[in-house]
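Title: [Solved] Exocyst complex subunit 3D structure

Original question kept below for reference.
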Amino acid sequence: MSDQAIARIAHLIKVEDDLTKIASFRQQFVKEKQSVDVKLSSATSLQIDSIMGNLSKLNSAAVKINAIKSNINKVNSIYDDSITNIKDYDTIRKMTSVNQFLTQVNSLCYDIRQFRDHLLRLDRRIEEELEQLQSSLTYTLPNLFSIHYELTQARNFSEYLEVYSRELSDDFKSIIYKIIDPIKRTIGNFQELLGEAIISLTEVVKDGNVQLVHRVVKIVEYESNEDLKFSLMQSLGLNQSRDVKTIDYASFRGRRRNYRKFFYDKLEENLSETFNACINHFSEDRMLVYENLDWLEDELTFITQRLAPLFPASWEVDTFIKNVYYNKLHKFTMEVINTDPPAEDLMKILAYDSHYSRRKSVIKQDQRSIIGEDLKNVVLEDYLKVITLKMEEWNVNLMKQETTAFTLRATPPDLYNYSQIIEDEDIQDNIITLEVDSDIYVLPDFKTPLTMLKEQADVAADSGYSKILVGVLEHWSHNYIKRIINYQQIIEEEFDKYMSVYNNERFLLKESKTERLFRRRKNGEQQFDIENMTQEELEQISKPGLIEYLTALGNTFEINTDRLQDKFLPNYLEKVHTSYHGRIKQAFEETLTPSTELNAQVIRTVVDIIVNDLYPALSSVFTKGWYDEGNTQTNDEPGMVQRCVETIGEYMEELRGYSSYEIYSVTFNILLDTFIQAYIRIGYENILHGSGKKIDPTAVKKYKSFSEGIGRDVTVLYGSLEGLFTRKDSAYLLNSLRAIEYLGDLGTCSDPLETIPDMWEHEILSSFYYCSVEYVRGICLCRKDMDKNDVHALVLKLTDIQKRYQASVDPPAMPTGTLNGFIFK
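Solution (posted by the thread starter after getting help):
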């Protein structure tokens, strides 16, 4: 019993209860066996029928083979009888040979006498055909076959005489050679005719003259077959065993004639002349060759689509022509590269190479690059090195020019018409969009860096090599950042020069006696006798126009950053494979943070210059003179805040005239924050360390009331500055001024330990989410009724409230940063 059967039985009988089913299992097995027997019997019958049919066919084949053997025997018998039974067979055979020889000699004599005249007639026919072909590309050479036939007969005859003369004396050989010598001229004439037809193939096909192609193909194909026969007979030794005395010389061939080689040689010669003509035409500027190879691409397309199908596939005419043109183009390109051309020329070569490689339908797979993959990679690297060195040199020169222009400031910045989209609010507080065209300041030649990028990147993109484009963009980005760093250093140096002449901190040192807070670090800068110097001498130290040039610098990088992100980045992403998108995005994004930091430094410097001009007025804040401004009977001079808003207004009116809206808006916001912090900080310092007096919350006289003075200043500030803001931006002014307004309540409220925490949680933090606790600590220290212990306990409480508040309340989308990081000594 087989293992399969045992396994099946084991599967069916697993437990003791299965033994009762043995009878049913037996019936099932019997049925299955009967079914298998029927199938086996049917298959056996089919196999037996097939075997019997094959045996019948084999018997029939055996009968036919025996019949063939019988017929072959009859043929052999008849042949033997025809040879052995004919009387004088050898004599008859010899007489036949003699008769053939006499006939051959008679024919030779006749053909020798007619040979020269025959060749002359043939030459005239060839010349007539050549003239016709040269005068018209539509001429089909109808006599080409008959001319070729007659020439073939003449060549057979001449080669026969040449072989026959090998057994003759030298004198007879000389005579034979003189007889056959004229055929050399005729062969040359025919080759000229055939060569003209070959070099005209492309043009005649364009004119629809395909019959000429067919005739050339038939002749070359015929000659190739005859050469093949000759080579086979030569290799078998049959040519040497021929009896030349009796052979039919009309079909005699004494050597290979190599018409196929002649065809390819002529074709290559013509193609080379065509390509060389193009090179010679642009000999003065060989790079123009690459810009004028449309004819070559059209030629390759024509050959692939129309010319090649007219030839036998085994000729591989299209492959041959493509090889010729590729070799010529490759050789020419290598000659150019070996002359060490400039980077621009290398880029043109690479650009054409990329263009050439995309012509997949008309070039071979192994000829996709005209300079080769290995050399192409070397050229790509060399080009990238050359162009990056050039960019580096250009960038160094540009930074020198920019440094000179910025530091000398000999002329005002350039004006640029800038279209801006501004968001504002109408009287119903709905957001509206305004498009504003204004003339803003920009640095001289501010488009130069982006122009340089466009020129180099466009050339790299046109080359079709993403590696080059990405390399150019990355290196340009690095140089762009170097320019930013250079400008940051220039700003520092120019601001130091400005402050060495126009620094107003001396007013704060003199009036507030807070030298330890306001003393600037000199960083080794040269000190000047400002009091005894003329205005011209001062301007030699710090040139006029610093704010104008700072604004022009900020405008320039704002515009260029927008153009880089909105125009340049999408443009170059479209030109490369997606695998390079990450590197290009990173190259552009790397310029964003430095550009933003530079503009922040520009704005910070402009704000510092403006605030520096405010120090003389701010030096009196919270002093006796500040309180006395409330006494209108004794106050004939403009007050402290009035002088501040006049100075701010003058600066911002000018700034609004030549800066972009973005620069103006951010500058004004930062100026507000800085001014308000300076107002509060200097006020604290005046009270705590200067000539100011601590705040008396119980003062009732109007011009002695701290809260009245605060309210007066806030009113003047808002009323004077509101007109310099858009309706939408004026909200920031209002929010910022609350930092001063709250001082009135914080400095005069009753029960400060209870009132101030409530104000802190429900008013101050809601207006200034990141407000520094120092802001409240300072005003509390300035109150007469609070000591340091009270203030310390209050600060701890405020700090705890702020933590809980920020944990439960999300920060606003645009928090007011006036009191962020506020500190005082």
